[in-house]
Amino acid sequence: MLSKKMISLLSEQVKNEFESAYLYLIAADYFHSEGLPGFASWYINHSKEEVEHAMIFYDYIHRNNERVQFFNLEPTRTIYSSLTKPLEDTIVHEDFITTCINQIYEVAAKEKDYRTTNFLTWFITEQQEEEENAHANMDKLNLFGNNPAGLYLLDKEMGNRYGKHNKGE
Ligand code: FEO
């Protein structure tokens, strides 16, 4: 059984994950326009992964015989003009998502809702990976992005990553 507060928090996380998907899609659109199909591919795949995250929360709410509360989406609508900005935004956003997950966990623990703390454990681990990916992308762009040959090879690597690892590792 989920408390009303927990249903609301989990539902809000459905919204947050869809906003994440939108943010990644905006970045993909920008990278496509910049002639970087590898970066665009990575961001599209990650956008799909965010939708999967949203649906995991959706399914969890329904498996507990409750209904999802829907909120208006408030996605960032940044018009990008530099290669680094989408990557910076990704880092900030993933930090925000980690904070959200931690806050839900804290409430669940306080309510002794151990089913939900157990459910959230996967997301806590996932956020470690999400933050690592976000920082790794930024680090690589800083290292190789100013050199056209380096950027070309980095774009190729970005395009291959989801092909080899479904989680963008
Ligand atoms: Fe689903 Fe990138 O957090």
Summed up, the helix count is 5
Structure classification: mainly alpha
Helix content: over 70%
How would you sum up the major sheet? none
Shape: elongated
N to C succession of SSEs: HHHHH
Bound molecules: MU-OXO-diiron
Termini separation comes to 35 Å
What would you report as the Rg, rounded to the nearest angstrom? Answer: 17 Å
Written account of the structure:
By secondary structure, this protein is an all-alpha fold. The protein has helices at 4-33, 37-63, 84-110, 114-144, 148-164. Helix 1 (4-33) runs antiparallel to helix 2 and helix 3 (84-110) runs antiparallel to helix 4 (114-144). Mean pLDDT is 93; it is low at 164-169. The site of MU-OXO-diiron has 7 residues, from helix 1, helix 2 and helix 3.
Produce the secondary structure layout.
Blueprint: H1 4-33, H2 37-63, H3 84-110, H4 114-144, H5 148-164
Helix pairs in contact: 1-2, 1-3, 2-5, 3-4, 4-5
Bound molecules: MU-OXO-diiron (FEO).
Features:
169 residues, disordered C terminus, binds MU-OXO-diiron
Concise description?
The chain is 78% helix and 0% strand.
